[in-house]
Write a structure and sequence with these properties.
globular, 5-stranded parallel beta sheet, 2 domains, alpha/beta, 158 residues, Oxidized Rhodanese, domain 1
Length: 158
């Protein structure tokens, strides 16, 4: 009798966990609880500059981040690329290909917020990883670079 009762409790507990979508604790499947709240709605996306805001951000989110958090905006393209058009909020131009690029990054204040961009997002993605390895925490880059920025209809300065 104890075995039947214990089995029934385990089955009902597993069914309850699945019904409440507790991340598939018993079955190893199901959606993670973080993907929806109890009402079933998706959670609101975090705002730029928030602790859990992604490092790779869309141009529109980058614009919001610039307007609300005033990060140090770094164009890591060459001087020629920068002269052809850049974000108006650009604070620094640091050529990714310069031999002292990593040293210059290492010399920046690790407590400030940073937004990096390049042409397509490849160089700024690599630089973002370098900054992460150096201990920076509030770092982001524009996914798709200035190409995505202009495709989104956002302004550039020439």
């Amino acid at each position: 009798m104890k075995t039947i009762l214990l089995t029934a409790i385990i089955v009902f507990a597993a069914a309850g966990a699945y019904a409440f979508d507790l991340g598939g604790i018993f079955s190893g499947c199901g959606k993670p609880a973080a993907l929806k709240d109890l009402a079933g709605a998706a959670p609101e996306a975090p705002k730029p500059g928030a602790v859990n805001f992604p490092m790779n951000i869309k141009p529109e989110d980058a614009r919001y981040y610039i307007e609300t958090k005033a990060p140090v905006v770094i164009d890591i393209r060459t001087a020629e690329e920068h002269a052809a058009g850049h974000l108006g909020a650009t604070s620094l131009v640091m050529d990714y290909y310069a031999p002292d690029f990593k040293d210059r990054l290492a010399g920046l204040d690790r407590n400030s917020g940073y937004l990096l961009y390049c042409r397509s997002g490849r160089r700024s993605g690599d630089a973002l990883q370098t900054m992460k390895d150096l201990g920076f925490t509030d770092i982001h880059h524009i996914a798709g670079g200035i190409t995505a920025w202009t495709a989104a209809g956002l302004p550039v300065v020439k």
